[in-house]
Amino acid sequence: MADTRNPGTIMGEKAIAARMHLAREHLDRLRAILKEPDRWVSVWFLAYALLGAVSSGLLPILLPLMIVALTHHLSWVAYVMGGFNLGLLTSPLWGNLADSKHLHRPIFFCGFLVLLMALAAMPFLPGILTWSGLSLLAGAGTSAVATMASLFIVEFDPQNEWEPRLGWLQTFNGGGQVGGLFLAGIFVSNFKLGLICSALALIPAIWLGAKGLPAGAKSYDWTVEIGNHMRRDLDWRFLANFGRPELLGGGLLRFSHHLSLQGARRFGDMLHTRFGRFLFSWFAVAFGVAAFFAYFPVAMQKAYNVAPALTSSVYAMTAAIALVLYSVGGQLSGRFGAGRVYRWSLMLRFLGFALLLLVFFLPVSRALIALAGFVLIVIAWPLQSISGTSLTARLTPFSQGEAMGLFNASGAVATVVGTFLGGPLVQFIGYSSLSAIALVGILLGWLTGHGLQTPDAAPAAIHDDSAVQKAQA
């Protein structure tokens, strides 16, 4: 029987049916996207999110403000925060201990316990030596948890799952940092309560870790060789595929790859190479910005008239946006080259610190200009992080694992030294010295980073000494 309906009506029904079919396709695609994390995310990732909230969100804001408010000694901030950064350098110790004694779970839980007890004791045990010691323990506890977190994935999950699992792990940590920064704005008027709540927040982290850690970590598997696997099999490319929020001291702790000093024995081999020049550039920049990141909540309040609550809120929002920019940084590095993107990131940071310094000499509103500079400084980090990681792999004359160890070590040592130097600078010169030394370090890094992008700067594929010698012959 022929359809006697109006042709316009028939066409309208077909259009509606087509739209409904398209809507169902979009809904199915959305469901697939929402289900994707279930493949890679484990319950214990929530524990890592809480670690990010405390160590990367609350502590960088609360500790400097508390020290200045209770003691009025500006230089004490550098020594206490330097103790925390120094504690983060214990990462190789935990990696080697897990390698030799196979104590993954005990190290993970003890790290949380040490951090918890250090934070709970800080408000009740004032004093420069006590605070520095407790801060050192807090950094060591943070380092222990972070190192074991990456090993739980690298050692107890299939290699083809490393990239997405580590990516989601770091996403949880970055989300925790953003949440911690927002919470810091609430506790800036009550440091003691803030530190106690930070310690209490780690209790559910321990419980969450106990619920979801890999079963293989409970017993030693004689086929597992932790250090060798990480240095031999860890592919540099996945490092650039997920975000690392800028942590205390300008990005000291690399959650994707535990700090390794094994590459130090190669130091003499690369002094006169482009890789050596890049490491010097990275060291100079990390050294320059370290003091500012130790003092920034105090400096923003005292020198730029920005309330701590506003500083932490702006930092949180900027860090949230910056998490999205890591993928952009990877795309830019692929299109224009990591060398150019690296120098662009340094130019952004240079502009940000220049704004912070100029307000001391110009009759302008300090708060607005300082916030604009601060946002530029934080926003530039994804570009610097991604391009720096890529340059490490592309310029290294030896294995990428050893190169990554040197890369992490150079930034870590520079941060510790720069943080401790910040105390005398602020004490004798003032807050303007923080942005001034940052400008010097960034400018030096920008100049020495010139010419790193060359056509033959391809990823290294040489992993043994004989191959290196043949390639250099």
Describe the structure.
Keywords: Membrane, Transmembrane, Transmembrane helix. It comes from Acidithiobacillus ferridurans. Helices cover 75% and strands 0% of the residues. The chain is an all-alpha fold and 473 residues long. The chain folds into 2 domains: 40-213 and 244-250, MFS general substrate transporter like domains (Growth Hormone, Chain: A), CATH 1.20.1250; 254-453, Up-down Bundle (Growth Hormone, Chain: A). Helix 2 (45-71) runs antiparallel to helix 3. The relative contact order is 0.13.
Just name the CATH architecture of the largest domain: Up-down Bundle
**Total E-strand runs:** 0
First-residue to last-residue Cα separation: 86 Å
Total domain modules: 2
What portion of residues belong to β-strands?
Answer: under 5%
**CATH H-level superfamily of the largest domain:** MFS general substrate transporter like domains
Q: Counting H and I runs of at least 4 residues, what is the number of helices? A: 17
Give the overall shape, derived from the CA principal axes.
globular
Poorly predicted ranges: 220-245, 247-259, 455-473
Q: Oligomeric state of the chains?
A: single chain
SSE pattern:
HHHHHHHHHHHHHHHHH
Mean pLDDT: 77
Largest sheet: none
Q: Radius of gyration in whole Å, from Cα? A: 24 Å
Q: Please identify the structural class as seen in this structure.
A: mainly alpha
**What fraction, in percent, of the residue positions are helical?**
over 70%
User: Which topology of the largest domain does CATH recognise?
Assistant: Growth Hormone, Chain: A
CATH class of the largest domain: Mainly Alpha
